[in-house]
Amino acid sequence: xxxxxxxxxxxxxxxxxxxxxxxxxxxxMLADAVIEGEIRRIRNGVFASPSADxxxxxxxxxxxxxxxxxxxxxxxxxxxxxxxxxxxxxxSHGRVHHDRCSCVGHFYxxxxxxxxxxxxxxLVHLHACHGDEAFFASLESALASRKLNAAGRARxxxxxxxxxxxxxxxxxxxxxxGVESLLxxxxxxxxxxxxSQVEILGVGRVDFVxxxxxxxxxxxxxxxSGRDAWRRDRKRDAVASGLGYETLRISYDMILDExxxxxxxxxxxxxxxxxxx
Length: 277
Hints:
elongated; Endonuclease, Chain A; 12 helices; 4-stranded mixed beta sheet
């Protein structure tokens, strides 16, 4: 492996020639490495290792670093939805290098860098592009996976619009999933309490318990498809009913696409439980 490729890998897969010059690689050496196929020239003065992630290379080709949902996913953070096009952090004075390209540029304070935007920048950019819910779910994922510490959390909060800072205050560090984050955020304005991964004697572990009486199970398309699984679920529901619980089974897609239906069912069940208390 050539020195140029080793250095590029150390810099996250992409780097400017000026930076590589500081480590002893001359223009001629870089040109020879390109000719030999050891590295790639993305655009004038910018180079990539053959092992560089294509998303990082695309962002560098557009003039900056990958950010928003694409960057968060690469950091191992849960995202509600992927970006339709590359989102590129360009600093405050960056320049998009492709004419008529479909990338989304983020011109925020700071210098233009290449590679992968850090978690803090990507979260701030995500809020600007995808809104409160996507931001909140990714924020809790970042906190739960320890990709964002208390100091970083405070910095993210300070960079958000004032109206959105309550989202950071509400966020927990122990969220188990993006679905949990979405449900908690949506039920919060209604004053409805949500507990996740609750163990109920005789029933087992359930996804969520709302207001202490409503069991909410969220099933993905890949689960509970067989007859045996269907029968086990119904037995669990019957045992839960005998203990005074009502069970509501919904799909993940319903949370995303039919929330009003889900919300109405939850509110009605909560009102029934409160009336019978």
